[in-house]
Design goal:
By secondary structure, the chain is of the alpha/beta class. 55% of the residues lie in helices and 10% in strands.
Length: 217
Amino acid sequence: MRHLEKKLGKHIDLLIQRYPVLELCRQDIIDGYLVMEEAYENNHKLLIAGNGGSAADSEHIAGELMKRFKTPRKVSAEFAKKLCEVDSERGPSLAENLECGLMAIPLVAHEALTTAYINDVDGLGVFAQQLFGYGREGDVFLGISTSGNSKNIISATVVARALGIKIVGLTGAKGGELASVSDVVVKVPETETYMIQELHLPVYHCWCLMLEEHFFG
């Protein structure tokens, strides 16, 4: 059983200090983080989906993971050297400015693919199709749904389970169907959509901070 590194506990403590209502979710937030940490340690990736405001959250999370959140993430000296060998003019600038990322794919961001699938095949299977194409055993699917019952998210979880992809659910107090099919679910203690979304952001920011400190701190 994996445990949270002691040095990462400060992020959870600060989160709860700033948002005391999330004390109810403390262990679930930790467990969700540990699922992601394990995937990244084994060279896997995070796939993220949601609708509306949760679609925006999906892109937000990917943006925080694919480049620095707070801590600089310089490329290795070995890779910097290769860049300079490949192109002596551009290589030094790239070596200085490129940042290491944790691979995260927001399934909401591929307009040509998603609109083609919605138009040609099935609107509710759009995330399932992408998960089937991008996902590999050992990856993690982060499904964000304030109700926990978004049909396209639930369809994606079916594909995730069939592929051996772990599911982290981020939802509201009721949990919905997403709570019953997730390996870990964080049910923030609100039932109004916008209030749920207001608590989702600090939760995933905390995850991003902990992942960055673990891998790049």
